[in-house]
Write a structure and sequence with these properties.
Blueprint: E1 15-16, H1 21-32, H2 38-52, H3 83-96, H4 103-110, H5 114-123, H6 130-141, H7 149-159, E2 160-161
Antiparallel strand pairs: 1-2
Length: 162
C-alpha cells in the first residue's frame, strides 16, 4: 500500500524537572530557537549555569546589581565581558525595548550576537556528544576556564524529561 502523505508525530518538548523558573524559561526559549537535541540543550544550559547560575542581574564576582551598576568584569547570564559585547547588550535593550538586566532581554540579545549565530549550526546538529557541543559552546562564549561546564551539562541530562 502506497501512502501519499504521512504525518510525522511532533517532536516532544524537553522539560526540566527540579529546575528553577529561569532554567525552565531558558530551556523553552532555546527549543523555540530550533535546538532540539537534549545533549546540545544540556551543554548550553551547563555553560549558562557555569557563567551565572541563571541569575541575569549578576556581576562577575557575584554582586547582584543592575546593568549600569556592574563596573568591571562580566555581566549577566553569560557574563558579557568584552566592551563590545557588554555595551551591545545595553544598546540592544535600548533599541528593542527591554531591561538589560532581565532574563528575557538577555536571551533575545544572546541569540542575535555574532558568536551565537556562528555556534548555532553546531547546536542544531542532532545526535552528537556533550564534547562535540562543548566545542561550539567555546565558539559562543570563548571561556577561559572550563570549570564545571561538562559536569553541569550531565546534571541537566539527568533532569530532562520528554
Amino acid at each position: 500500500m502506497l501512502i501519499a502523505h504521512a504525518t510525522l508525530p511532533p517532536i516532544a518538548e524537553i522539560r526540566c524537572t527540579n529546575c528553577n523558573h529561569n532554567e525552565k524559561f531558558t530551556l523553552n526559549f532555546l527549543q523555540k530557537q530550533g535546538i532540539k537535541d537534549e545533549y546540545a540543550l544540556a551543554t548550553i544550559m551547563g555553560n549558562i549555569k557555569q557563567e551565572s547560575g541563571f541569575v541575569s542581574n549578576i556581576c562577575e564576582g557575584g554582586a547582584r546589581t543592575s546593568y549600569t551598576g556592574c563596573r568591571y568584569g562580566g555581566y549577566g547570564l553569560i557574563q558579557w565581558t568584552s566592551t563590545k559585547r557588554y555595551y551591545g547588550l545595553g544598546s540592544f535593550a535600548s533599541r528593542y525595548g527591554g531591561d538589560p538586566s532581565s532574563l528575557s532581554t538577555q536571551l533575545r540579545y544572546m541569540v542575535n550576537e555574532y558568536q551565537w549565530k556562528k555556534a548555532l549550526p553546531g547546536f542544531k546538529t542532532p545526535g552528537k556528544s556533550i564534547s562535540y557541543y562543548m566545542n561550539h559552546a567555546y565558539t559562543w562564549l570563548g571561556w577561559g576556564i572550563h570549570g564545571n561546564r561538562t559536569y553541569y551539562a550531565k546534571q541537566y541530562l539527568d533532569k530532562f524529561t520528554m
